[in-house]
């Protein structure tokens, strides 16, 4: 599994008198390594199923199958450990990408084509905040790349991208994903893209 330390999660709530209490305190219940990309580990922290989010003592939303995008009108908070790129992962990445996204419940997220700048290119219709916690990573876009180090923050607005780890150690990123909808003009441009 992950070479990085486990995530410690504290969930609060309220007792019958409205006093704030700790509902759970410990490791994450859902930590999943992608079979198609060994070393890529998803640490599911929390999600909301709508906006405004329900404030209650409801069940833990992280139980159940791993899903890439946030729920409709909801949000998702997770850490992802991304291993160093390997020759196999770069040469066979496109074929294995659909497998990886199928395990994430979103096989259609893969956008890789023969001329893609990276074999793990993908897109989701969401606004995602990605923060590098440990290690380094390169954000790869259709046009251009940016090297990211601890403290770097990416505001991903539904753009086609990949995460390349060209270092010799895993990178941990914190992601907050918010459900979104493409502006009609952009949706039309994306639909007509080869």
TrEMBL record:
- Which Pfam families does the UniProt record give? Cupin_2 (PF07883)
Region Disordered: start and end of each range? Answer: 54-74
Tell me the InterPro entries matching this sequence: Cupin_2, OryJ/VirC-like, RmlC-like_jellyroll, RmlC_Cupin_sf
Tell me what this protein is called.
Cupin domain-containing protein
List the source organism: Pelomonas parva
Q: Which domain of life is it from?
A: Bacteria
Taxonomic classification: Bacteria, Pseudomonadati, Pseudomonadota, Betaproteobacteria, Burkholderiales
Q: Output the PANTHER family linked to this UniProt entry.
A: CUPIN TYPE-2 DOMAIN-CONTAINING PROTEIN, SLR2101 PROTEIN
Which residue numbers delimit the Cupin type-2 domain? 120-176
């Amino acid at each position: 599994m992950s070479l990085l330390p486990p995530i410690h999660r504290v969930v609060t709530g309220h007792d019958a008198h409205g006093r704030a209490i700790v509902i759970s305190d410990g490791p994450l219940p859902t930590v999943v390594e992608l079979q198609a990309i060994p070393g890529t580990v998803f640490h599911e922290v929390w999600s909301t199923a709508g906006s405004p989010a329900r404030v209650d003592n409801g069940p833990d939303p992280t139980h159940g199958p791993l899903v890439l995008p946030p729920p409709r009108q909801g949000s998702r908070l997770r850490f992802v450990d991304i291993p160093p790129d390997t020759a196999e992962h770069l040469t066979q990445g496109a074929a294995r990408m659909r497998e990886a996204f199928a395990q994430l419940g979103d096989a259609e997220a893969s956008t890789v084509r023969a001329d893609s700048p990276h074999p793990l290119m993908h897109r989701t219709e969401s606004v995602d905040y990605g923060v590098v916690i440990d290690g380094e990573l390169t954000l790869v876009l259709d046009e251009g790349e940016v090297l990211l180090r601890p403290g770097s923050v990416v505001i991903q607005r539904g753009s086609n991208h990949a995460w390349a780890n060209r270092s010799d150690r895993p990178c941990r990123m914190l992601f907050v994903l918010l459900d979104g909808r493409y502006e009609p003009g952009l949706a039309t441009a994306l639909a007509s893209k080869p």
